[in-house]
Amino acid sequence: MNEQQKKKISKFLSLILRHQPEIINLTLDKNGWANVDELKEKCSKNNMDFTLEELDEVVENNDKKRFIFNEDKTKIRANQGHSIDIDLALKPQQPPEFLYHGTAQNNVDSILEKGIEKRSRQHVHLSLDKETATKVGMRHGKPVILTIRTGKMYEDGVLFYLSENKVWLTDFIESKYISR
After folding, report:
1. Which of 108, 128, 97, 111 is nearest to 174 (CA)?
2. Domain spanning 3-78 has what CATH number?
3. How far is Cα 89 from Cα 65, in angstroms, rounded to an integer?
4. Distance (Å, rounded) from C-alpha 138 to C-alpha 127?
5. Which fold does the domain 99-179 belong to in CATH?
6. Which pLDDT score, from 0 to 100, does residue 121 have?
7. Residues 89-139: pLDDT tens digits?
8. Model-level pTM greater than 0.90?
9. Cβ(180)–Cβ(147) under 8 Å?
10. Domain with CATH 3.20.170.30 in the chain
11. Structural contact between residues 95 and 150, judged by C-beta atoms closer than 8 angstroms
């Protein structure tokens, strides 16, 4: 399978497993898991054919580790980034002192005034390093990396979660914890 095919499958899985499973009439359980056989069958009916080996390659080689299988590879889900209501069953964790948020230059003034909202997603996403945050910010325009004082937020009672693919998640970031 070439890189273009992998990317096409990955984008389709992101749409289905994170945002719109109804497009192919796929059933996700309350924790966002889909049956792999059902996923393959319903994708195939929508002209998105792939083998289990190809699906495994997409999951294993995705640069952002967006997806995960259960232990016996009978179920699959997205690690985070959902706009649909699911429970990832993540446990609160203490974050490092600082995390980073990548955004576009044109969002900075609003963020510094109002904070960072999760909007249509279940959580605000934060990166452990500036490089990852830069990649995220580049998707939306000229990137700006914001430093988030997550240690202070945690001290103040804000909850944080760590997804399977090491993205830090929280519900909202007040502007007082953000610096350029």
Report:
1. 111
2. 1.10.10.970
3. 18
4. 14
5. ADP-ribosylation fold (3.20.170)
6. 85
7. 999 999 999 999 999 999 999 999 999 999 888 899 999 999 999 998 998
8. no
9. yes
10. 99-179
11. yes
